[in-house]
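Subject: mismatched residue count in predicted assembly?

I count 311 residues in my input, but I want to confirm that the predicted structure covers every chain. Input:
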Amino acid sequence: MQPKPVVLRILDVISILVLGIAAYLALVIAPTERVMGDVQRIFYFHVGTAWTALLGFIFAAVLSVIYLITKDRKWDRIQVAAIEVSLVFFLITIVLGSIWARPVWNTWWTWDPRLTTATITELIYIAYFMLRQGIDDPDRRARFGAIYALLGGLSAPITFFAIRLFRTIHPVVIGGSNPEADGSFSMTGDMLNVFFFALFTFTIIFIDLFWNRIRLGDLQEKVEQLKLKVMM
Amino acid sequence: MFFQETIPDTSGYMIAGYAIAFIVMGLYVLSFYLRSRNLKQDLAMLEEMDKSVVETDVNLSKPTKQVKSVTKKGRQKQP
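Triage response: the counts match. Full output below for your records.
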């Protein structure tokens, strides 16, 4: 395995630093929301992880197209990396949303359109990894993965627009409002600053983890190739 | 929540949320380390096996020549 590039090492350090700063801003600097109290602070990490995860799923769909055109397995490895990191981020989004909902909606979970589409998206990509495990031929696995991720990518915009298209109790904080929502709030200037910093933070962390995951995929590929060579 | 006078204390949920977010991210980073370590071990082992396979091939080719020479001598002595 190639030694870790200096840029990636720097990015690792920056990721930890910005995560610490984002947590400090969200927990200490951002003002307390009057109706919901401290639990509203979950919003910064909830939206930050959701933003990067959904973009990651769409990015993976684009990588699928590139793989299907070029047939180069490098793109398959990059696609897997994007989906894996997005899956972890989206899991955090769902768990944080559920914790926020308990005091605000008085329930951990409800089958609201946003929550339902988010769950379906998460399950689609969990199934992606389970199904990949069942295919031994690397080329077939990559082709299958590309087609699956391309179709699965549709779930990301559906999840994003669910609160804008359907009747839902999920708040629309950015780019609109939902009169039927429970737990809506208007962001003050300080809240907006913290919010944008959280988006920036999770974008940086995503890039860092994504790059590290690609390197891990390359190592995995090398081991698989050598295994085949030794067995033959 | 509309006619409340004080801000509700929901800090427990906030702490739980942030704790879970950090734990999940920490576990994911840990999984990177563990997977990378296991793959490096596998790679080292496979490289060793690959090397020994090459050495075995070389050793196998040597005795074949010796057997041939013995056979030749044997044939020469027979008459």
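Chain B has a mean pLDDT of 79. Marking this ticket as 'not a bug'.
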